[in-house]
Amino acid sequence: QVQLQESGPGLVKPSQTLSLTCTVSGGSINSGSYYWSWIRQPAGKGLEWIGRIYTSGSTNYNPSLKSRLTISVDTSKNQFSLKLNSVTAADTAVYYCARMGDFWSGFPFDYWGQGTLVTVSS
Amino acid sequence: QSALTQPASVSGSPGQSITISCTGTSSDVGGYYYVSWYQQHPGKAPKLMIYEVSDRPSGVPDRFSGYKSGNTASLTISGLQAEDEADYYCSSYTSSSTVVFGGGTKLTVL
Predict the structure, then answer these.
(1) How far A119 CA lies from chain B's nearest CA (Å)?
(2) What whole-number percentage of chain B has pLDDT above 70?
(3) 3-state class percentages of chain A: helix first, strand second, coil last, to nearest 5
């Protein structure tokens, strides 16, 4: 059973960089044809897709975040990471990492982390 | 990219059926059979309920079904049960190799 766990600071100051890591257990991040994604959800609001990475390092980003965003993968640690710079209060949200299937399965998010709340405040 | 359009809320009584719509464009919902639906209970991570428009992952009851016509996808829940009360989100792959979610629908079981 694949499990994902987000980790990182729960409080980030405005204009600084938000950094989160997702650790994958129960299977190798390299096995199968999967993408690894980040999704966020502000309190009381809907889901917003942030971006995804393939184990080759290929990425796709939400156009609204692309200029501030970097997603990377460390296959040796079975982890992938998110860096969002120049954050503002609007970036305050619960951040989820998730496994995303490939086009053969229609790109579903089939496994999710429990989510981690990141608050941007001075 | 604009969020897919879902009704803010729907409701139904136990045993009844409800349908939640998800409207996009020809660049997302209308262009691909890559529509998924997620159920989210308060304080919990979303759970995949439907993928590829109408397929159910193992363990999801067959009371949940999906359909698509043109730029609109739909999730139908038949035989409503109290535990179905939750928020539901649709998502679609897009022509830009990105993913877009719907705004979410709150299902109330009366």
Answers:
(1) 16
(2) 100
(3) 5, 50, 45
